[in-house]
Hints:
Structural class: mainly beta
Order of helices and strands: EEEEEEEEEEEEEEEEEEEEEEEE
Strand content: over 45%
Distance between the termini: 167 Å
Number of helices: 0
Strand order of the largest sheet: 2-3-9-8-5-6
Amino acid sequence: RLATLAFSAGKLSPVFNPDIFKYADTLPVGVKSITLVMSPSQPGATVTVTGDTLAAGAFSKSYGILSGDSLFAIRVVSEDGATQSLYKVTVVRPPSSLATLSGLSLSSGTLRPTFSPSVTAYADTVAYAVDSITLSALPTDSAATVAITDGALSVGVNSLTAQVTAEDGTTKLTYTVQIVRRPNVSSNARLSSLTASPGVLSPVFHADTLMYSLGTVSADSLVLAALPSDVNATLSGAGRFALTTGANVFAITVTAQDAITRQTYTVTAMVDREGPALSLTRPTACTASRSTLSP
């Protein structure tokens, strides 16, 4: 006989009694392993669990449990081998209803927002050169399955999905990624030239340099002239501008043909309206002398 019998999860039904030989144990949802702990009523007896002989003094063993019913046969044999008892325990593990992902990634681009198992909607924008994307998804529960739709991208909005089906076969959760593939247009938002009149740009103009200074300008107005590198880009901020005392900051923005890429160049001109101070001197005294008029 067994003196004790216990399972690490669930609850034996009926309550263990050495003279009762059949039991059931229903595990909580999500529990996938269990440890059996028991002790024989007589020293020297051997215990086997479903064919595995347990070492004397360590009558316990852990098992992974599949979804559904699992039968454990516990055989106790007396030291002399003359008597034996067989206990049977049916362990019931309900299938998991967990249908979330623990990971989601793109072969190109970056998910927005950052992935979280509780967030199911994502987006990203890719260049025209990206014509296909692979979606990788890892289920939180290894027993769940994932069906993925990905592949070739068309210009515009593309919907990629990862549908998770829980172990129970009923619970489902779909993660969606909206991918916008840009059209085949230029993303060049640089200038090919930038000049100011009056004044000289510092540093010397370069398409990759975005900030310039004219120093102090002695004028009432300033003309900024600019040309985009790409004729299909649009330009704003060039022209003639009135100058005021102090720092005058002008922004010239180039918007690429793709209407997404933008770059802004700034020009700062200082104006000092205070001229040199007037010098006032005391007038020189005049003297007059009497003279005689002659005809």
